[in-house]
Amino acid sequence: MAGIWARTPRISVATILICFLSTLVAGPCRADEAATKAARELARKIAGQIDHKKTVFVELGEVTSELRPADLAEIKKVIVSELRAHDLSVSDGAQAEVRIRVTLSSNNLERLWIAEYDSEGAHAVVISPFEQSSLDLKPWLARVHLDRELVFAGNSPILDFACTDTSVAKNCGPVLVLYSDVVVLMAADQNFPRISIPHENSWPRDLRGRLKISRSDFQARIEGVECTGNVARVQASKCTPVSGPWIFAGPEEISFGSLTPSRNWFQGSAVGAPNASRANRDPFFSLAGLELTGDMGWIVTGTNGEASLFDRKSGNVLGTISTWGSELATVKSDCSSGWQILATSKKDHTELDSITVYEWTGTEFRTLSDPLDLNGTVVAMWSAEDGGPTRAVVRNLKTGNYEAYLLKVGCSQ
C-alpha cells in the first residue's frame, strides 16, 4: 500500500506559469502534466495485475468537474496506449472480458485516479494519487447565458417555424410557419404564399409537427402527412401520406420512432443503433442528438417523467434525470464542453415556463445557466440540424398568442 499511496513529484513553477498564461489567453490547459503522468502510472499498475490473455475495455469519468470532456478523452487515449504498450489487448467494449472503470476523484490532500474492475470473480481497485492544482484552472466551468430572439407571433397555434435566410442576423428572412392545416411563408410582398395540408380525419388535440429547411427546400411533417416544396414556390408544394420514422436533429440527423396514433408522444428505437436497449423503445416526448467526447449520443424525455441520455453505439443509458419538463433540444456553442442541452421546467400548461441550459459531464448533468423565464408555456422545441439556435414555440398565457423564438447559448465572462 505504501507504493500505491506514494505521491508524485510537484508540478514545476514553470509548468504552472505556462498553464496560467495560456488560460488567460486561450482558456485552460489540456489535461495537465500531473494528471497525465499519474494516468500512465495507473495503466502500468493495471497492466501488472491483469491476465494478458484477456481483452479489456476502458471507460473514463470524473466527480471533480475539473477536466473538459475533451481532456478526459485525451487521458483515456493515454491509458489505452500505455496498456497496449504493456501487451494488453484493448477493445471497444463489445468483446471485452474485463471492464476497467477509471474515475478522477480527490480528497483534502490530493487528486486520485481510481480504477476498478472485476476479474476471476474478485473486485480489484487500483489508485494513482497526484497533487491538487495550485491554481484555479477551471474557467471553462463559467456559466453560460441563454438569449431569446422573437421572430414571429400570431393568434393561431404554431407547430413549428423555420428561418428562410440564416444569413440575415436580425429577422432570419421571411419566416416559414407550420400550422395545423397550412404551411405559410410570412412574406407580405408575396401575399403570404401557402399550401394547405390535406387530412381525412380530425387531428388529435395535442398535434405535433416539424419543419426542416435545407437551403430553399423544405419538408413539413404532421402526423402521417409530409409536405415538400421550395420557399420560392410554396404554392407548388406536394403533400403525401408518410409512415416512416420521424427525423430528429443533432450533430447529424437521427431516424427515431413513430408518433403514437392520436397521441403527442413517440415510440421506437434509433435506426443505426446496433444494440438498442429496451429503454430506447419506451415512449418519449422529445429527442435530440449531441456529441459525447467525440462519440454520438441522444437524449430523450420519457412519458415516465425522466430524461435519459443514451450512447448511440451501444444503446446503453449513460444517465437519467427527473427534474426536467417534457421539451428539450441540443445546441452547439463555443462554451464549456461544446454541446449543451436546453430543457423546460417541470410545470403544466397552465403555469409560466422556463428554459435552463445543462451539459453532460461524463458522470452527471450540470446546470450551466440561470432559468430563462418565459411569459407562457413551451408547446414545441426543436434542435437545428447543424447544432445552431434552437426553435421554441411559446403560448403566451396573458395574450393567448403563439410566439416563435430562436434560443442561443452565449458564453458568460
Structural class: mainly beta
By CATH, the superfamily of the largest domain comes out as YVTN repeat-like/Quinoprotein amine dehydrogenase
Q: Briefly note the CATH topology name of the largest domain.
A: Methylamine Dehydrogenase, Chain H
Shape: elongated
Q: Largest sheet, order of strands side by side?
A: 2-1-3-4-5
Distance between the termini: 44 Å
Strand content: 35-45%
Defining traits:
Methylamine Dehydrogenase, Chain H, Rossmann fold, 4 helices, elongated, 413 residues, 29 strands, 5-stranded mixed sheet, 2 domains, mainly beta
Concise synopsis of the structure shown:
The chain is mainly beta and 413 residues long. The protein has helices at residues 2-5, 13-26, 33-47, 69-85; strands at 55-62, 89-90, 98-106, 110-119, 122-131, 144-154, 160-163, 175-178, 182-185, 194-196, 209-214, 217-222, 225-230, 238-241, 247-248, 254-259, 266-270, 284-292, 295-302, 307-311, 317-321, 328-332, 339-344, 354-360, 365-367, 372-373, 376-382, 390-396, 402-411.
